[in-house]
Amino acid sequence: MLGSTGRVPAGTPVLEVSDLQVTFPGRETPDVRAVRGLSYTLAAGEVLGIVGESGSGKSVSSLAVMGLLPGTAVTTGSVRLGGQELLGLKDRELAQVRGKRISMVFQEPLSALTPVYTVGDQVAEAVRVHNRVTRQAASARAVELLDLVGIPYAATRAKAFPHEFSGGMRQRVMIAMAIANDPDVIICDEPTTALDVTIQAQILEVLQAAQRETGAGILMITHDLGVVAGLADRVLVMYAGRPVEVGSVDDVYYRPRMPYTMGLLGSIPRVDERGRSALVPIEGTPPSLAALPTGCPFHPRCPMAIDLCFTSEPALERVGGPSHAAACHLSGVIDDQDLGPVDVYPVPEIPAAAALRLPRPDRPHVLDVQGLVRHYPLLHGAVIKRQVGTVQAVDGVSFDIREGETLGLVGESGCGKTTTLLEILELKAPQQGRVVVLGRDTSGLTGQQRTALRRDVQVVFQDPMASLDPRLPVGDILAEPLRTHGTPKDQVWPRVHELLRLVGLQPEHASRYPQHFSGGQRQRVGIARALALEPRLIVLDEPVSALDVSIRAGVVNLLEELKTRLSLSYLFVAHDLSVVRHIADRVAVMYLGRIVEIGDVDQVYGAPAHPYTQALLSAVPVPDPRKERARRRILLQGDLPSPADPPSGCRFHTRCPRFAALDENARRPCLDLDPGLVPIAEDQQAACHYAEPLRVV
């Protein structure tokens, strides 16, 4: 049985937050008002989703509820847990509440777990701190909890250390600790942000199971509106430290009455929609919490702003249904005219690239990869190293990209996407196989030819801050490739200014340093640098994964516009299948170093034939509550096998739900024969002995 406390009846308020204010005083700078007047209630058995961009106050408010803010923070208002006031309690009194009546699942489990203790000991400690039980009883309880959250061989794995677990397994351990004492409230702070979509689906399933067992209210803090659509009962949208819209998940998603909420919903690419219409971008960046604008803090970014918005901050007032409220002077106008995101925000029209009007076979190759192999020796020994195995990072990958085309390369972490990308960017002879770039076989290039070819092949990295030199102003960063490749001096700075305008920045920004830009602006600088030498192929390595959804929409629109205007081709490496559906023409799905399905993006997404592709797509959350509630997830068991010891036969059979349903004779090909890609449709191939198209989104 879980815990020993009586459960709070469903629907009874367990957490009541009233006028919560959190301020970080500045010594020589203005105070930072991180949370400004936040109020909400959470009932037993309810899931409340709190969403908003980075810096909106989501995580700070949750830390205030837990009493985990630094001593310098000034917190006022009221936080009542089951009628007990938490603000003002001493550390010893809070320690009796935390972990027992209210618990938290943190974003990064590796940082939250102690590396020198086994996971079993850490879960057992959470039990013993709040219960008078023996060490043996606590250890037995820890194994029970680990088994409950889906960790296989729980009794054995309890003796392992955190670093021996995958990211998804570590997050399961955090959930086991959170539910150890049958809490009334579980706060989840971005619990799935750093996880692959398949692992995310497993974690959300575990959270729902944990809630059923404990009857707890869940506070889900996330930027993923798809996760909230399928999990939450109510939604609270935060901006600039305060709530700007709150209501049932259906009210907020289908009848948003605040332009900011409308922008968030319109900026999300959807895995279930065909077409190439532009996303809804929210221009600008969130305001500094140390220097908020007068009036409504959203008015500098709001296309509907009127004079009143510049002088008066709107209160959170009821709109529509009894539980639906919005903080907007124009919510009545939005309601009366039934406006949607595309009615409020200007959406650019992006025509298809001219090259795509030709049939694919008639377009020239930009990149042709055949049988690419990259194995790494697995060495053992500190002084005298000996090879004890081989890591098969990439093992026979083949694909091509035609002029004006975008190929999306997707798969879980560790499947070989980045290694494939790096092998191509080396522009050298591969370990095995063949890489042909713009008609030039990389195995026969001289150093001079390789340097010349680099003009035509550029890359945009995942983290723009890490890829831009913080010591150089942006102008010098953009001028560097021009100077390296011999651009005349009198043409360098006009080209720099042209590049800044091309990506939506101003020429005067050339004198600023990277740290003076927002994340989205830094990524635009990275794109400008990639465009400096007028390349024909750009490799994009997770270019929008580090950005808020609103900023991401503008960058995705920019990439599509540049592709059309400059006749570019993209190799788009990503784990976000929604973005790939929106931007790619074709998609290749990788698993354990191999491509298991490839073809036209609409064909593969509409009727995936490989069980792995089907599981990936079924796990992608859709920002549509009704669809999410009706969808069936295909949950994969276990983690990705080690590329140093791949399974025999089909590499996916150890996790394949289709294989699990076969009888012994039918399983034999999967165990013994490695399947190759076979045609499924006109432009769709899958590597599966029992490939069968299935609609999952």
Description:
The chain is an alpha/beta fold. Among the domains are: 220 residues, P-loop containing nucleotide triphosphate hydrolases (Rossmann fold); 107 residues, no CATH class; 65 residues, no CATH class. The protein has 27 helices and 24 strands. The strands form four sheets. Strands 6-7-8-3-9-10-12-11 form an eight-stranded mixed β-sheet, with helices on both faces. An eight-stranded mixed β-sheet has the order 18-19-20-15-21-22-24-23, with helices on both faces. A hairpin with a 2-residue loop joins strand 16 and strand 17. Helix 4 packs parallel to helix 7, helix 5 crosses helix 7 and helix 7 packs parallel to helix 8. The longest helix has 18 residues. It is globular, with a radius of gyration of 27 Å. 48% of the residues are buried.
Helices and strands in order, then pairings?
Layout lengths: L12 E12 L7 E12 L3 E5 L6 H9 L7 E8 L2 E2 L5 H7 L4 E4 L3 H4 L6 H12 L4 H14 L5 H4 L9 H12 L6 E5 L7 H18 L2 E5 L3 H7 L2 E6 L2 E7 H6 L4 H8 L40 H5 L5 E2 L6 E2 L4 H7 L3 H4 L20 E16 L5 E17 L3 E5 L6 H10 L5 E6 L2 E2 L5 H8 L2 E4 L3 H4 L6 H11 L4 H14 L16 H13 L5 E5 L7 H18 L2 E5 L3 H7 L2 E6 L2 E7 H6 L4 H9 L5 H6 L26 H4 L3 H9 L5 E4 L2 E3 L11
Parallel strand pairs: 3-8, 3-9, 6-7, 7-8, 15-20, 15-21, 18-19, 19-20
Antiparallel strand pairs: 1-2, 1-4, 4-5, 9-10, 10-12, 11-12, 13-14, 13-16, 16-17, 21-22, 22-24, 23-24
Helix pairs in contact: 4-5, 4-7, 5-7, 7-8, 18-19, 20-21
